[in-house]
Amino acid sequence: MTTVLLVVHLLVAIALVGVVLMQRSEGGALGMGGGPGGMMTGRGAASLLTRVTIGLAAAFFALSILLAIVFGIDSQGRSVYDNADEAIQLQLDAPAEEEETPEDPVVPIDD
User: Fold this and answer.
1) Maximum Cα–Cα distance for the chain, whole Å?
2) How far apart are CA 57 and CA 20, in angstroms?
3) Whole-prediction pTM value?
4) Region Disordered: what ranges (predicted)?
């Protein structure tokens, strides 16, 4: 299930990038120009590329939220945050590893 969601999410992201790159640049500093051909006018909203972009963007956000929910819960139905306290406690309880010192120091040989 998760692999299918990841593949679909990747395909939607690639399609979204492609559709955005196919659109005509209208200038105006990232779409803030407010010209008459903007997205909120009747002519701009009717554009096929604009509708496809909006649909792909909505699908991208929905898949992102769904993936966050799916990967946020493990097989036992617990959140990752529930496991964080246990992991921290295990690290605190673990004995510190002692560094090993070599018994015979390595002496470089001059040629």
Assistant:
1) 84
2) 10
3) 0.54
4) 92-111
57 pLDDT higher than 80: yes
**Rounded to an integer, what distance in angstroms lies between the CA atom of residue 15 and that of residue 59?**
11
**CA dist., res. 56 & res. 53, Å (int):** 5
Structure tokens at 64: 């992102």
Helix ranges (H only) for the chain are 2-22, 28-31, 42-45, 48-72, 80-93
The C-alpha atoms of residue 90 and residue 31 are separated, in whole angstroms, by 51
CB 73 within 8 A of CB 82: no
First-residue to last-residue Cα distance in the chain:
64
Share of the chain above pLDDT 70, in %: 59
CB contact at 8 A, 4 and 66: no
Place of tokens 């991208």: 60
Report residue 90 as tokens.
């295990």
Q: What is the pLDDT of residue 13?
A: 96
SS3 of 73, please?
strand
DSSP state, 79?
Answer: B
